[in-house]
Amino acid sequence: MGKGKLAKFADMAEYPHVFEYPYSVVDDVPFDMKGRWKQDFFGNDNPIVLELGCGRGEYTVGLGRRYTDKNFIGVDIKGARMWTGATEALNEGLKNVAFLRTNIEIIDRFFAPGEVDEIWLTFSDPQMKKATKRLTSTYFMNRYRKFLVPDGLIHLKTDSNFMFTYTKSMVEANHLPVEFMTDDLYHSGMDDDILSIRTYYEQQWLDRGLNIKYLKFRLPQEGELVEPDVEIELDDYRSYNRSKRSGLKTSK
After folding, report:
1. DSSP 3-state of 116
2. How many CB atoms sit inside 10 A of residue 87's CB?
3. Quick one: which of 238, 10, 249 has its CA closest to 125?
4. pTM of the model
């Protein structure tokens, strides 16, 4: 029988590579490692890569296995899910993998300017009702700028046509440099080691015949970011663990 939530949270509290700072404690507990992740935790000067909304941590752990010359931090608020990847990383002795349990809305409180090199957004909730909740909105991009290196990389991997179209429109509206873009990743010729890491839910979507979209772009520090002024058709299916939409057909 698998562990329950309370047992998982108890495990996480003892894991040396898991840091827990949800909204309820972040104002009262300073994060002393801000600006010192490489020195105080990883013990090296390798680039730091974040996975925001890491879920079970499959991508964070998969990247850590493949790229020992980089440091990976999975970020999510749902600790019971994160326990899976955190436990795998601990059991495998992955010294370049850590997890941060917190709200992504306050992610800039945990990293100093220029401390992070790349961000991965893997199957983020498209948040079709409210733009400011989308992890590729200008609301979040301005937060990423606070700790990303100049022209830092952002990777979006999604099953959602809405999220892909919105992000593409945001990138175009702000003239952000695009490294690669495809609406059918596994038939794009770019199915490399990084992109071939498949999460549990990704495999479910692939089995349902859904295309996986991928967008890789850079985020310069200069310039004011603007939201795209476009109407986007809502996704025509109900994805895993996402609530039913209203009767609207499009959204901004």
Report:
1. strand
2. 18
3. 238
4. 0.90
- Around Cβ 43, how many Cβ atoms within 10 Å? 11
The span from the CA of 116 to the CA of 73, in Å, is 10
Helices (H), the chain: 5-14, 23-26, 58-66, 79-92, 138-144, 161-173, 200-207
Residue 57, by phi and psi: left (phi above 0), alpha (psi -120 to 50) or beta? Answer: left
Catalytic residue numbers, as ranges: 125
Kindly report the backbone phi and psi dihedral angles of residue 68, in degrees, each rounded to the nearest multiple of 5, phi listed first.
-75, -10
Q: State yes or no: 103 annotated in a binding site.
A: yes
Please list, in sequence order, all residues whose beta carbon lies within 8 angstroms of the beta carbon of residue 243, skipping any fewer than 6 positions away: none
Was 51 annotated as part of a binding site?
Answer: yes
- Residues in Cβ contact with 247 at an 8 Å cutoff, skipping those fewer than 6 apart: none
For 12, other C-beta atoms within 10 Å of its C-beta total 20
Q: Which two tokens stand for residue 193?
A: 């080691």
pLDDT in tens, 79-131: 999 999 999 999 999 999 999 999 999 999 999 999 999 999 999 999 999 99
Say if residue 200 carries a ligand binding annotation. Answer: yes
201 is in an annotated binding site: yes
